[in-house]
# Entry
Amino acid sequence: MNPLLDGFLSRLPLPSEQGSVLYSRVLIRRDLEGHRFPAKSSQAQTRAVSVLMEKAIRNTGRFEILNLESTTTLDRRIAVERDLLPQSFAVQGGGLISLGMSDPVWCTVNETDHLRIRAEVGGSDIRKAYKIAQDVDGLLGESLDYAFSPETGYLCSEIADWGTGLSASATLHLPALAMAGLVDRALRTALDSGLSVRGFWSDESVSSGALYELETPRGLWTDEETLLDRFCDAVERIASYERGARDELLAHDVEAVRDIVGRAYGIARFGRRVGYDEGAETLSRLRLGACAGILKGFDGSEGARSFYALRNAHLLRYGNMSDSSVGDEVPETVRIEQIRAATLRSLVSGANVLEVP
Amino acid sequence: MLCVKCGKREATVFIRREGAGESALCDICAREQGISAEDGRLHISLEDLFSPPKDSSERPGFRTTCSACGTRLEEVRKTGRIGCPECFASFRTELLSYLKRRGRGGAYHGSVPRRFAAVRTRTADSSTASISGELKLKDLEAKLKDALESEEYEKAAIIRDRIRGTGSEES
# Structure
């Protein structure tokens, strides 16, 4: 694996151990004055922007620059799975990504916009993520002329993004609400607050592993602090619904919870081929068990990080392939399912389902 | 002040009619409207002098193509994307109207880039409209300077006219 990418992935923060908010991220979009936007640029114009950006980014002294053309297909798939960059950018060729040397922040150049700055934290401290991204934005803004109009804010390639250029998002794990059939009602809070909601692994509303992505609307003209306040309020409200749903389940139907955690433990402990959806659901229930005190010896943070680790490219790179159950002469899809099963086994190797919580 | 009809020539005929506002026309457009100033006299036809443009395409300065990147307004409407920052200046009225129809009217309150930060600090106690006006003027002046330095004179003329328009809005 590309060492820069590998090093960066290992430095990314761990997700929350017990909380519902696994990760919080911000994205800042910026475009340059006097340059055509990427979709309208010729190769020479794109290259000119890349050179300008690379110089400005190097001058901050905070980033390592990675040309995607120097990475393998598997590396790029891992970066896409880990949400470092969108699929379209990974395949278009000639892309540049800058990885923070000490902070969980990275920038892409010539995606849909000239520059996109992303920062991530584990848990719900979105303001910390914003501070990290804002620092980089300010540093780069010292030497770059951002396209801006006092009437509309920062000008981006897509009109819908005009404004602060800021988006905030959070990944939430809502297994208790999912089990109680109350996810839709809880997420309506987010919708009423103007946030968009989608399944973490797809644009569908139903998600494997009870994972959901909440995001602020695009192109807001309110100030950034107000935007983040509203976002935090909505996210905290949903997180409190999840805690409430979990407490209710444990108070009135602990056997139902023990049943699904026990079954998930069984699949993880003894399964030999596990598809992604089943793997994500299993992991979700194991994490619920850990948070509810029913499953001991299972690290909730490691479990949350494993939502990424169970994805195909991650398994091919990092999965447990030394397990004898993983065949060498099988089709890749079967091999991946076997590696996933072996990975789940190693996750629960020290875990026990308690009879009494 | 520029002629409100053609947007190119200096206005020399200023007309005010009760209940219908004011109009400022150059010699040529005034003559087309039935007004001429000859022989030291003003000759006025009975034609309605204040016919508003039938649609935006009759608005002075209406453009269908960005002067910098060649993106067409039609393409912007279809894709929701502009080709370069200058597209905003080229299609400003249409784009602001588009944003307003989508509930994005009012003033911008977010952060500003470095080159505007000094203006915002200086006008911190002023009204939002005043801040916006001064930021707009500073932005246009900076763009005019860049256009002149890069010898893009047509672009500079457009920006100069917008500065004049901003100046009259402020007064």
About this structure: Helices of chain B lie at 27-32, 73-79, 86-90, 92-101, 114-122, 128-149, 153-170. The interface with chain A takes residues 68-69, 71, 76, 80-85, 88, 95-96, 98-99, 104, 106-116, 131-132, 135-136, 139, 146 of chain B (CB under 8 Å). The first strand of chain B starts at residue 13 and ends at 17. Confidence is low (pLDDT under 50) at residues 45-55, 123-129 of chain B.
